[in-house]
Amino acid sequence: MVRGIRGAITIDSNTENEIVEASKELVQVLISTNNIDPKSVAQVLFTVTEDVTAAFPAKVLREFDGWSYVPVVCAQEIPVPGSLPLCIRVLMTVNTDVAQEEIAHAYLREATKLRPDLTLTND
Protein backbone atom coordinates (compact mmCIF):
# COMPACT_ATOMS: atom_id res chain seq x y z
CA MET A 1 0.00 0.00 0.00
CA VAL A 2 1.25 3.52 -0.76
CA ARG A 3 1.24 6.14 2.01
CA GLY A 4 2.30 9.75 2.19
CA ILE A 5 4.51 10.80 5.08
CA ARG A 6 4.56 14.54 5.63
CA GLY A 7 6.71 16.95 7.54
CA ALA A 8 7.78 20.56 7.78
CA ILE A 9 10.39 22.62 9.56
CA THR A 10 11.33 26.29 9.65
CA ILE A 11 14.71 27.98 9.51
CA ASP A 12 15.86 31.22 11.10
CA SER A 13 17.55 32.62 8.01
CA ASN A 14 17.97 31.84 4.32
CA THR A 15 21.48 30.36 4.39
CA GLU A 16 22.80 27.16 2.88
CA ASN A 17 23.83 25.86 6.29
CA GLU A 18 20.40 26.51 7.86
CA ILE A 19 18.58 24.85 4.96
CA VAL A 20 20.86 21.80 4.92
CA GLU A 21 20.84 21.29 8.70
CA ALA A 22 17.07 21.75 9.04
CA SER A 23 16.40 19.43 6.10
CA LYS A 24 18.64 16.76 7.62
CA GLU A 25 16.85 17.10 10.95
CA LEU A 26 13.43 16.78 9.36
CA VAL A 27 14.34 13.79 7.20
CA GLN A 28 16.08 12.02 10.09
CA VAL A 29 13.02 12.41 12.30
CA LEU A 30 10.74 11.00 9.59
CA ILE A 31 13.07 8.09 8.85
CA SER A 32 13.57 7.13 12.48
CA THR A 33 9.99 7.55 13.71
CA ASN A 34 8.54 5.63 10.76
CA ASN A 35 11.37 3.10 10.37
CA ILE A 36 11.65 3.98 6.67
CA ASP A 37 13.74 1.75 4.42
CA PRO A 38 14.84 3.73 1.35
CA LYS A 39 14.01 0.70 -0.83
CA SER A 40 10.34 1.24 0.04
CA VAL A 41 10.33 4.93 -0.95
CA ALA A 42 8.79 5.73 -4.33
CA GLN A 43 9.66 9.44 -4.30
CA VAL A 44 10.33 12.45 -2.11
CA LEU A 45 9.03 15.95 -2.81
CA PHE A 46 10.43 18.95 -0.97
CA THR A 47 8.72 22.32 -1.21
CA VAL A 48 9.95 25.62 0.17
CA THR A 49 8.45 29.03 0.69
CA GLU A 50 9.61 31.71 -1.74
CA ASP A 51 12.09 33.10 0.82
CA VAL A 52 14.11 29.85 0.92
CA THR A 53 16.57 30.08 -1.98
CA ALA A 54 20.12 29.49 -0.70
CA ALA A 55 20.17 25.69 -1.19
CA PHE A 56 18.19 22.69 -2.40
CA PRO A 57 16.79 20.75 0.57
CA ALA A 58 16.52 17.62 -1.58
CA LYS A 59 20.28 17.21 -1.88
CA VAL A 60 20.55 16.19 1.78
CA LEU A 61 19.00 12.80 0.99
CA ARG A 62 22.20 11.88 -0.85
CA GLU A 63 24.00 11.99 2.50
CA PHE A 64 21.85 9.18 3.93
CA ASP A 65 23.01 5.61 3.27
CA GLY A 66 20.91 3.81 0.69
CA TRP A 67 19.02 6.86 -0.58
CA SER A 68 21.04 7.45 -3.79
CA TYR A 69 18.41 5.94 -6.09
CA VAL A 70 15.32 7.49 -4.51
CA PRO A 71 13.77 10.05 -6.89
CA VAL A 72 13.72 13.45 -5.22
CA VAL A 73 12.75 16.95 -6.34
CA CYS A 74 12.29 20.45 -4.95
CA ALA A 75 9.55 22.95 -5.76
CA GLN A 76 8.37 26.33 -4.52
CA GLU A 77 5.14 26.77 -2.57
CA ILE A 78 2.62 29.29 -3.84
CA PRO A 79 3.19 32.64 -2.08
CA VAL A 80 -0.02 32.90 -0.08
CA PRO A 81 -0.21 36.15 1.94
CA GLY A 82 0.31 35.49 5.64
CA SER A 83 1.73 32.00 5.15
CA LEU A 84 4.49 30.71 7.42
CA PRO A 85 7.84 32.11 6.22
CA LEU A 86 11.16 30.30 5.87
CA CYS A 87 9.47 26.92 5.75
CA ILE A 88 10.67 23.63 4.25
CA ARG A 89 8.06 20.93 3.66
CA VAL A 90 8.49 17.33 2.59
CA LEU A 91 6.20 14.59 1.31
CA MET A 92 7.60 11.07 1.13
CA THR A 93 5.63 8.53 -0.88
CA VAL A 94 6.32 5.18 0.76
CA ASN A 95 5.21 1.59 0.17
CA THR A 96 4.18 0.29 3.59
CA ASP A 97 1.63 -1.87 5.37
CA VAL A 98 1.36 0.68 8.19
CA ALA A 99 -2.15 2.07 8.62
CA GLN A 100 -2.64 5.69 7.62
CA GLU A 101 -3.50 6.77 11.17
CA GLU A 102 -0.28 5.14 12.44
CA ILE A 103 2.03 7.16 10.21
CA ALA A 104 4.11 9.62 12.25
CA HIS A 105 4.23 12.97 10.48
CA ALA A 106 6.70 15.56 11.79
CA TYR A 107 6.09 19.29 12.10
CA LEU A 108 9.05 20.89 13.83
CA ARG A 109 10.01 24.32 15.16
CA GLU A 110 7.57 27.02 14.00
CA ALA A 111 6.01 24.56 11.54
CA THR A 112 4.08 23.09 14.47
CA LYS A 113 1.61 25.89 13.71
CA LEU A 114 0.76 24.27 10.38
CA ARG A 115 -0.57 21.02 11.84
CA PRO A 116 -0.63 21.06 15.65
CA ASP A 117 -2.63 17.83 15.52
CA LEU A 118 0.29 16.04 13.84
CA THR A 119 3.14 17.51 15.88
CA LEU A 120 5.67 15.05 17.33
CA THR A 121 7.59 17.55 19.42
CA ASN A 122 7.28 21.16 20.39
CA ASP A 123 10.73 22.77 20.29
TrEMBL record:
It catalyses: chorismate = prephenate. One of its GO terms (molecular function) is chorismate mutase activity. InterPro entries: Chorismate_mutase_AroH (IPR008243), RutC-like_sf (IPR035959). Its EC number is 5.4.99.5. Transmembrane segments: none annotated. One of its GO terms (biological process) is chorismate metabolic process. It comes from the Bacteria. PANTHER family: CHORISMATE MUTASE, CHORISMATE MUTASE AROH. This is chorismate mutase. Keywords: Amino-acid biosynthesis, Aromatic amino acid biosynthesis, Isomerase. Prephenate binds at residues 6, 89, 107. It is an enzyme of class 5 (isomerase). It comes from Halalkalibacter alkaliphilus.
